[in-house]
């Protein structure tokens, strides 16, 4: 590696939920170069190559993605480019630079028909374009075989960006009644938890690369436990009440509904739960329960 004492760490998607958190968590590990889509556009392969060849990073953390699940059904080509083709270009350039690539994927690579949490050895079978595009990105990286760690996560939320938590807090101030899906199960995961765990992975991976013991791998990275969107919403209301934030809320009732009662362009997996034992054992981390992490996030000023 070019600069083992202070590696250059390139973060894509710096304004996204995870990208914003990564700028803080990765700062102790090296020199951070965080770019938005204007400086590194995953829709433009030439933009990717130019940026990486100019920066010459030791680590690339790809926090940029096309995340509009329903819109992806109508913008299939763009979703496939950003989520499917661009990660392959990142991997090619990482291999050229002898850099480590960290890439985020999703629970939506699975069809949701399994009754228990998905493990890393379960076969992917996406049921929407977004999931198919993210799977294509995983496969492109694995084919090129630069040093990489792929991290599948789920139901990401945080204190910024577009996410379920912020949407619910907004709607609870505006409406007395909400109807929330109660037959999809998954694990809400705080963007800061993803970023903090990524920092641990990068730190350990840099040591392993110096020792020539590093092995590329795929892991599931979520909080522990599981819930439904309906229970997630109810917890948000309960925590807001506990933290004395409920005085500005109109919300009275949160009604459970079925997926069939809320049709969307893209199908969603009924079961999005993923087993995280492999990650916890490898990196000696204990992932907090989803509700503990949610309370911590909501307690932030």
Note down, in words, how this protein is organized.
With 301 residues, this protein is of the alpha/beta class. It has nine helices and twelve strands. It has a six-stranded parallel beta sheet with strand order 2-1-3-4-5-10, with helices on both faces. A two-stranded parallel sheet has the order 6-9. It is globular. The relative contact order is 0.16.
Low-pLDDT segments: none
Rg over alpha carbons: 19 Å
Give the helix tally: 9
Q: What is the straight-line distance between the termini?
A: 39 Å
Cα shape? globular
Structural class: alpha/beta
Beta-strand residue fraction:
15-25%
Mean pLDDT over the full residue set = 96
Strand order of the largest sheet: 2-1-3-4-5-10
| Number of E-state strands | 12
How much helix is in the residues? 25-40%
SSE pattern: EHEHEHEHEEHEEEHEEHEHH
Task: Profile the largest sheet.
Answer: 6 strands, parallel
Short descriptors:
single chain, 301 residues, alpha/beta, six-stranded parallel beta sheet, two-stranded parallel sheet, 16% strand, globular
């Amino acid at each position: 590696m070019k600069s083992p004492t202070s590696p250059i760490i390139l973060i894509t998607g710096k304004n996204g939920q995870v990208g914003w958190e990564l700028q803080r968590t990765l700062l102790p590990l090296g020199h951070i170069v965080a770019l938005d889509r204007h400086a590194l556009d995953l829709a433009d392969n030439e933009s990717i190559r130019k940026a990486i060849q100019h920066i010459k990073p030791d680590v690339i953390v790809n926090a940029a993605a096309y995340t509009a699940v329903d819109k992806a059904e109508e913008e299939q080509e763009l979703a496939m480019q950003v989520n499917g083709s661009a990660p392959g270009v990142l991997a090619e350039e990482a291999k050229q630079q002898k850099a480590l690539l960290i890439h985020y994927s999703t629970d939506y690579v699975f069809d949701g028909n399994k009754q228990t949490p998905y493990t890393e050895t379960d076969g992917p079978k996406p049921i929407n374009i977004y999931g198919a595009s993210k799977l294509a990105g995983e496969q492109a990286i694995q084919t090129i075989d630069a040093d990489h760690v792929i991290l599948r996560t789920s139901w990401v939320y945080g204190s910024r960006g577009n996410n379920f938590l912020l949407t619910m807090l907004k709607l609870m101030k505006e409406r007395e009644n909400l109807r929330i899906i109660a037959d999809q199960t998954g694990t809400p995961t705080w963007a800061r938890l993803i970023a903090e765990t990524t920092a641990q992975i990068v730190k350990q991976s840099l040591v392993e690369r110096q020792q020539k013991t590093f092995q590329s791998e795929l892991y599931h990275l979520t909080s522990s436990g599981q819930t439904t969107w309906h229970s997630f919403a109810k917890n948000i209301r309960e925590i807001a009440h506990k933290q004395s934030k409920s005085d500005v809320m109109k919300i009275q009732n949160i009604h459970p509904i079925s997926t069939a009662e809320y049709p969307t362009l893209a199908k969603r997996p009924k079961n999005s739960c993923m087993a995280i034992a492999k990650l916890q054992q490898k990196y000696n981390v204990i992932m907090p329960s989803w509700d503990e992490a949610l309370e911590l996030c909501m307690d932030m000023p």
